[in-house]
Specification:
Blueprint (H helix, E strand, L loop, with lengths): L1 E10 L3 H12 L5 E5 L4 E8 L2 E8 L5 H9 L2 E9 L2 H10 L10 E2 L5 E5 L9 E5 L4
Parallel strand pairs: 1-4, 5-8
Antiparallel strand pairs: 1-5, 2-3, 3-4, 6-7, 7-8
């Protein structure tokens, strides 16, 4: 089912400081920067081989990312596994007894489709699956 690690998302205090660190230490240049105000974060995205790595900076205190940053500090927010056939995968996973977030896959602010399994169905681990690339 999995085809690759689609993306890894980190939550950080400042995407600007992280961008400066990554460029200074590893020579990385961001592919894009976004302000997703309606979801309460700013992001910076890098392409590392076939995997996207993004860093999210919460801009509101009432989001899950802001709570994670406050409670755990900077670090991995989630890993998304790449798949093909996400619509069918949603139905198959639901049919296997998984509690899913939403009524079907959703489109991320970056243009690719995602589905999420509630951690209560997957031994406390948050699984996100993704199909497509950044639009």
């Amino acid at each position: 089912m999995f085809t690759k690690v689609h993306h890894v998302t980190y939550v950080v205090e400042s995407i600007q400081e992280m961008a400066e660190y990554l460029e200074r230490n590893f020579g990385l240049k961001a592919a894009q920067t976004d302000d997703i105000g309606e979801r309460g974060f700013k992001s910076i995205l890098y392409h590392i081989g076939p995997t996207m790595v993004d860093f999210f900076e919460p801009t509101r205190d009432d989001t899950a990312l802001a709570r994670q940053l406050k409670e755990q500090g900077p670090g991995v927010a989630h890993v998304a596994w790449g798949i093909q056939g996400i619509d069918q995968a949603f139905q198959d996973l639901k049919g296997k007894g998984n509690q899913m977030r939403g009524d079907g896959p959703s489109v991320s602010p970056f243009g690719y489709k995602t589905l999420s399994i509630e951690p209560s169905s997957s031994h406390g681990v948050y699984f996100q699956l993704a199909e497509g690339e950044v639009a």
